[in-house]
Design the sequence.
């Protein structure tokens, strides 16, 4: 377990939101400001990304001498989930509404597998339940090696931006494209490599979803090509209380692309959850 950095604001229902790859907690800021009158919004940086270190030091740039030799845990979404549970303990939150976008959704499903009693409600945004195919796994391992060899400058954002954002955002909203590029460029190579290896190792989560009978919302950008609406339908069908919301004009990252529509969908759903 490593101490993870997090951003927190607002008051009300505790809502923990886990970010996508290859960005950090700041991707949630447009949604956060729309929900913070209703929710205490807590957004951790996954280990190795944003301001969370990979190896158990505190925030990047504030490295103190370690009390014990540093180790880097084998990459897995279970390890990332254990970091989230450790944060909930630290914040003395026995139960929360848990959300995740894409990679954050994979980690949220791993939290649900490890500690379902701590999840009062589940919000899955542009993510999917199946494990990777062999081809997807190979691609991830190649990206991890390239990040370690070359760093992440330039190529990672160039390769990912066209897929992460919907066509409407790419064509009409250069400020969103610029903000996302800056977020990707800010991510350290070791954290990018660790996250890719963790995602490559993840298992299928359909059984986990079938076993969760609490309130669940599955939101998806109508223009998402990475985890398309069909993947969202599969998850909503597996969840006993799954509610599906499709967001027009958004790709894979509706918190950045369609925060008003996402917040409008989440507010009434959240209001019905008794944590
Ligand atoms: C993400 O947005 O977190 C990633 O695109 C997810 C993935 O690579 O499967």
Sequence:
């Amino acid at each position: 377990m490593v101490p993870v950095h997090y951003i927190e604001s607002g008051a009300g229902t505790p809502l923990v939101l886990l970010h996508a790859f290859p960005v950090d907690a700041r991707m949630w800021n447009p949604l956060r400001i729309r929900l913070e009158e209703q929710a205490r919004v807590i957004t951790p940086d996954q280990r190795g990304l944003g301001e969370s270190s990979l190896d158990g030091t505190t925030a990047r740039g504030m490295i103190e001498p370690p009390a014990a030799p540093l180790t880097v845990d084998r990459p897995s979404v279970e390890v990332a989930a254990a970091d989230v549970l450790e944060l909930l303990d630290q914040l003395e939150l026995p139960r929360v509404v848990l959300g995740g976008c894409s990679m954050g959704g994979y980690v949220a499903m791993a939290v649900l597998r490890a500690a379902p009693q701590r999840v009062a409600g589940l919000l899955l945004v542009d993510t999917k339940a199946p494990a990777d195919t062999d081809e997807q796994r190979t691609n991830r391992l190649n990206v991890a090696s390239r990040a370690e060899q070359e760093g992440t400058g330039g190529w990672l954002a160039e390769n990912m931006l066209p897929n992460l954002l919907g066509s409407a955002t790419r064509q009409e909203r250069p400020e969103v494209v610029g903000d996302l590029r800056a977020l990707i460029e800010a991510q350290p190579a070791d954290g990018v490599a660790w996250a890719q290896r963790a995602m490559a190792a993840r298992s299928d989560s359909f059984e986990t979803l079938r076993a969760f009978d609490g309130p669940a919302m599955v939101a998806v950008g109508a223009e998402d090509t990475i985890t398309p609406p069909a993947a969202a339908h599969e998850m909503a069908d597996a969840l006993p209380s799954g509610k599906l919301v499709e967001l027009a004009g958004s790709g894979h990252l509706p918190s950045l692309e369609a925060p008003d529509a996402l917040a409008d969908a989440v507010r009434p759903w959240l209001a019905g959850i008794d944590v």
Notes: Confidence is low (pLDDT under 50) at residues 61-66.
